[in-house]
Fold:
Amino acid sequence: MFSKAFGVAINPHQEQFFEKPAFRSFDYTFEFWPKSKEEMDAVQKIIFLFKYHMHPRLDKGSGGRLFKVPSEFEIHYAHLDQQNSYLNKIARCVLKGMDVSYGPDEQYSTFRPDGKGAAPVTTKIALTFQETTFVTKDQIYEGF
Structure:
């Protein structure tokens, strides 16, 4: 009430302290609009591969007490046949998140059903990758 009446606020005297760098993350969104059965199958394979490689494997040799770590990814931006130096380099990453949605604007629609079900007309995937190492000034100097 005092602050409002006099138009002042108490100074909390807060400061920022550097503790550690943060791991960088990168988000990518892709929309698929298959036009044929072959393209529908390709979309399903892409989704399966990302889903498969983002999860750990249960180590059966340990009696199920340990996990084998998920796959790592190398992401490179390219132009024609060479790396595009105008865009940031990305260190090795893991896929931390994957969201799959079907249908444009939350309107689910499908192609005619087949023996496996009814394939969606459109599929959208949102991927979140996170680097496995901290980036320092030295790496930034190298283009990261």
About this structure: The longest strand covers residues 93-102. The longest helix spans residues 37-54.
